[in-house]
Amino acid sequence: MLVCEDQALVRTGFVTIFSAQPDMEVVGEAADGREAIRQAEDLKPDVVVMDIRMPLLDGIEATRRLAGPDSANPAKILVVTTFNVDEYVYEALRAGASGFLLKDAPPPELINAVRTVARGESLLSPAVTRTLIGRFAERLRPAGAPASPERDRLKALTPREHEVLLLISDGLSNAEIAAELVLSPETVKTYVSRILTKLDLRDRVQAVVLAYRAGLVKEGNRH
């Protein structure tokens, strides 16, 4: 993996934690966004751990260049952030990040996050995702633009798939959705896969963003 963090102490801490794992290897470190892009393109790491605020080029733009829609081979990026910069998180998700985690997360959670992203899965911390994206939901929709284009995309979903998408956007895991809808986890996993395929989305992160852009969660959130 590649660790991108401008604070040397934090970066060293991440490297120490990851290097101690038998199934992980840190192949590079970067202290700014430009170096992050260069190393990611040269080293092709399985996972890029990306800070948001870095000099020369911030983590959002670095993420967009490495994992955005114009990327031939999108990198798997785990964004690390702190609450005092949470206004940037939704942009990182839209830029192509596979998920995000708070910098003060305990080591086991950080390690699990990297493994999850490495498997090609997205990482959403339910409560944090709901708080961060929900707080900036209006920004997810272009200024003055209606949500109809996104809502039109949702018409491809069946009523049950629509319900599952709403629960995904509410921050529920597959197991929690299964309990909520009285379904098996395997069935929920199938529904999630169908939703992503029908909406041409890469992962759950993009599904959450789309749901907020469409106004789905604003209208239907149970909280």
**Estimated share of beta-strand residues:** 5-15%
- Structural domain tally: 2
Give a quick account of the main beta sheet: strands, pairing sense, barrel closure.
5 strands, parallel
The CATH homologous superfamily name of the largest domain equals: Response regulator
The CATH class of the largest domain is: Alpha Beta
Can you tell me the CATH architecture of the largest domain?
3-Layer(aba) Sandwich
What do we call the CATH topology of the largest domain? Rossmann fold
Average pLDDT confidence is 82
The number of E-state strands comes to 5
Low-confidence stretches: 219-223
The level of helicity is 40-55%
Q: Give the CA-CA distance, first to last residue.
A: 37 Å
User: Helical region count?
Assistant: 13
Instruction: Compute the CA-based radius of gyration.
Output: 17 Å
What secondary-structure arrangement, pairings included, does this model have?
Blueprint lengths: L1 E3 L3 H12 L8 E3 L2 H11 L4 E4 L7 H9 L9 E5 L7 H7 L3 E4 L4 H12 L7 H10 L1 H4 L7 H7 L4 H11 L4 H8 L3 H14 L5 H10 L2 H5 L3
Parallel strand pairs: 1-2, 1-3, 3-4, 4-5
Structural description of this entry:
The chain is of the alpha/beta class. The protein has 2 domains: 2-123, Response regulator (Rossmann fold); 145-218, Winged helix-like DNA-binding domain superfamily/Winged helix DNA-binding domain (Arc Repressor Mutant, subunit A, Orthogonal Bundle). The protein has helices at 8-19, 33-43, 59-67, 89-95, 107-118, 126-135, 137-140, 148-154, 159-169, 174-181, 185-198, 204-213, 216-220, and strands at residues 2-4, 28-30, 48-51, 77-81, 99-102. It has a 5-stranded parallel beta sheet, with helices on both faces. Strand 3 (48-51), helix 3 (59-67) and strand 4 form a beta-alpha-beta unit. The longest helix is centred in the C-terminal third of the chain and has 14 residues, at 185-198. The termini are far apart. 39% of the residues are buried. Residues 219-223 have low confidence and may be disordered.
